[in-house]
UniProtKB/TrEMBL annotation:
Transmembrane feature ranges: none
Organism encoding this protein: Streptomyces varsoviensis
Name of the protein described by the UniProt record: Lon proteolytic domain-containing protein
All copies of domain Lon proteolytic, residue ranges: 154-245
Pfam families given in the database record: Lon_C (PF05362)
Species lineage: Bacteria, Bacillati, Actinomycetota, Actinomycetes, Kitasatosporales
Amino acid sequence: MAGVSSRVRVLTVCSVLVVALLAVAAFAPLPFSLAQPGSTADVLGSRRGEQVITVEGADTRKTTGQLRATTIVATGPDADVRLGDVIDSWFRTDRAVMPRDSVYPVGNTTAEVEKHNFADMRKSQDAATEAALRYLHRSSKDVKVTLDLARIGGPSAGLLFTLGIIDKIDGDGRGGELTGGRTIAGTGTIEPDGTVGPVGGVQLKTQAAKRDGATVFLVPKGECKEAEAVRPEGLQLIPVTTLKDSVSSLRALAAGQSVPTC
């Protein structure tokens, strides 16, 4: 009986410790950020009465389609995320639980993060301009491009900015729009040489795109599987790895031809 009593005492102590740990976990801040679909913005459109993309030194034309850059909204780097919040978001398709360091790799406060995102955005816009002008065989000495979309922070709109510049100046090279009059959304970083890179959060961005009327979504090829897992009905996912294949896919789509899909 003494042995049984000892085991009971051990189990009781262990149970108390487990309950105490769960109680602490329930109220202690966790190193996660909670994200959801954010806004989208048409880079071919206007912001506060001014065009998002302004071109000097080259002829431009009006466009009827849309190229919508997509975003996610996440809890701030200094926000307290609790266990209950994580559990609630974990089982929702319109929410995501992400390691805080993956959302905010630099900066511990909102002000620091905004400063970093602004710097990334400027770098991304410069790369987008260079990639577009290289593709069009235009010189930055003759053509000046100004991009104004402050609410899209970070580098994730790089591909859409690049496509927007090309569409405004050259379209498909035959007088037609790259969009074919459609509402096309997407995400992806861009390098000056035209390489498209991954960005994260694509599952939420596809939902934002569908909500705002997109029927096509350009996704970095390496993130196809993630995007396809919760693809909104009626949204076509087109994988891309370079600016060249992005333009080629859009041209084919506008011409009614088949294109690669995730």
